[in-house]
Hints:
alpha+beta; Heat Shock Protein 90; 8 helices; 14 strands
Amino acid sequence: MRRLFGSVRARATLAATLVVAVALVAAGAAVLLSLRSNLVGEAGTEAERSARAVAAELAARTPYDRLSGLDGDHEPVQVVDGDGRLVAASEDLERISGTGTDAVEPQAPAKGRGDGDDGPADADDPDGSPGPGEIAGGATFTNGSATIDGETADYRFAALEVETPDRGRLTVHAGAPLAAEHGAVRTALSVMLIGFPLLLGVVAGVTWLVTRRALRPVEGIRREMAAITASEDLARRVPEPDTHDEVARLARTTNQTLAALESSVERQRRFVADASHELRSPIASLRTQLEVAVAHPELLDLEGAVEDTVRLQRLAADLLLLARLDAGERPAPDARVDLAALVREEAAGREGVTVDAEPVEVAGSRGQLGRVLANLLDNAQRHARSAVAVTARREGDWAVVGVADDGDGVPAADRERIFERFVRLDAARSRDDGGAGLGLAIARDVAVRHGGTLTAGAAPAGGALFELRLPVA
């Protein structure tokens, strides 16, 4: 059971069925209440009509024993005088409730209020009660029951006052049966008890089938992802349905994620291969020199060994920094760095480098930003003929640092490729002069981690221009 309702399809079916069930119960209750109210209202209208007929006869001085509404073929009727005594009632009336008096046997009228007595009538009441010969404008209604000739039934009673000229104020209680109301309500309730479960079954079945059809592409995506996980083949893609709904967007997003993951894994593989290749040369060179020194101490090249060691140390530091950047390391947001001062500090002591910088502050790591400037200056000096110009300025909400040289420049087609790791455009250049091809890659990664950009373009002097843009603190 737990596994069944753990599926989206089962939960959707259950939720839809519950919502429809609540709606049907609410609608059914409203229908039953409305039906009962209408039928009870019709019974009340019928009871008031009967009471008015009897009251009209009483107002016309009709004797009690000649009232047409009291014969055995009519519904229960009671006539009560002003003292609360029953003075007339329907024939064969055996029991009654809900009218204010349970009496069924008429009593003799009081003196001066007898049948056919022409005694003086009561004066008009100051509160709007009917005057002599008048019938009250509105009736009051109650529910009760009555037994007539051995048959008991529920009734809707109407109580109506009439001021007679000869017998004073009388109250007529007349009833109309509620059998039609009870029957209609029972019939409607029976229909609902039978129809609602059938309708809920149809809703549950349709929802189950529709949800199954809607989730079929999701199951296909799940199976394909399971196969990709098992095979570790990131080149595979999940099927994309020919729709424009959420499932299709899920499939497209999944494929984009797989493509990004494949690209990341491929970059990681290339990175490991290139790093291994770059590390092999200085290590092999250093080992060769040490082996020669062991065999022939007089041939030891200390300067070469130191250079290889330094080169190996720098490469290890670059690889470590790239690993930290790939792991998502970000600078502290509350650290502020004066770019102008940092530019002058990194350019100090470099031959042929000029600086034109205005004060501008950015948030970030002073060490990492200094590494970016050092890498850009090293690259510019490596390719410049004679001069390197460094500028720092503010443009709106951005701090812009430009490093330009007067060398041969970077071809437009290679201005993005040079930021890839281990990329060197001049394959013939020696490793000592060209480095490992990590400087610009590190510089761009640091710029991105600081919320900025690093781009390559053409300098006014014809060489390369690298622009570092960082948000102003």
